[in-house]
Amino acid sequence: MAKKLLALALALMMVLSLMACGAQTEAPAETPDQTAGAPADTTEKTNDVPETTETLPPPPVNDWATEHKINDGTETAEELYELAKAEGTVVLYSISSRCTKVADSFNAQYPGVVCEPYDLGSGEIAEKVMREHESGIQNCDVVHCKDMDGSYYTEFVQEGIFHIYYPADIVEHIDPSLRQYVMPMYIELQNWFYNYELCDEQPINSWWDLTKPEWAGKFYFSVPTSTGDVTASLTALTAYSADFAANYEEVFGEPIEYTNPWGEENAVYELIWRLSQNQPLEAGTDAALEGLSLAEEVLIAMGPSSKLRNNASKDWKLKEIKIEPYVGIPATNVLYIVDNCPHPNAAKLLVRWMMGEADGTGEGNKPWQTLGGWSVRDDIADTEGMATLDEMNIIPEDPVYVYEHVSDLIDFGLEITG
User: Among 47, 225, 291, 319, which residue's beta carbon has the most beta carbons within 10 A?
Assistant: First the structure.
């Protein structure tokens, strides 16, 4: 059931570093503990998804989660702190080096409960948590990750390995559409960027503009041939083929014609084909974004919105493009509690802390309040100088759809590249 994600995890382990910015370099030694409890019935999901999506049942809530009130959400930080002091520790596996800042502020706020952060790659987290789960070993309490391709939701949440904890006084500040599948913390995007020093306004408005002859050889784009955030976002966009077809007609003044050699009548597949035929530049993300920042002519490149921070730290010149019809799905950073974790009350306390606590002012959320990231909370303001999410034309996350269809898009990309 987890073969797909484990295969990816093992591959990623070869190239992802195990440490960053002072986080611990090794996860804690594995020691046996009790095994996971059996799933129990839960209520039906009510979210709307594209018609092409094959929906899955709601996540299971087992006896352990019920016993430890993971599915309750009414406990206050004060109540959890008293319980957490008896546990003494909470272990965090995170995809960000900023986890060390979270741990420092947590340890200062809650003496007697020590947060141990481990900065790991996403694939490393998946592989280690799965191995521990299958061995009846419990080390990790809280996982911070992204799940753009739906693997975590499908293979961990749906299988009862991860639980979603919704503190009631915090989720009331989060749009329900953002928390259908996850406990979201903050959002990043895969954006198109340009050099703001070379343009008074964004040089393109639509994805289709990059298929025009005048943009040949002036944009960075790699055909999707493997899993990753861009591939996941493109896969999600394939559910909106009709909107991309309508946008094509707005740009070119005529209905779309499908020219790809495989006869794929999906406008996003056709878009990818035409982009591949318009002499795209290829480079790694950082090289492409640095390249457009240094270039004397206008270039376009895609990358994580978090790279906007490099405008200050590396003197880049990035400005995000509000692309039509959609930029893609949000790259939501999410929090899970691991099934049968050894410190469940400290885990709930840490989730609250990383979310900014009840009023949104907690120091645990401050490391994520930076240029290129959007809080999911309505009581935390966006960083100054950023466009709003409403302006960025995002579509709702649908991990089920992406999980079911990402391999099809990769196969199409492999056909293009031969």
Answer: 319
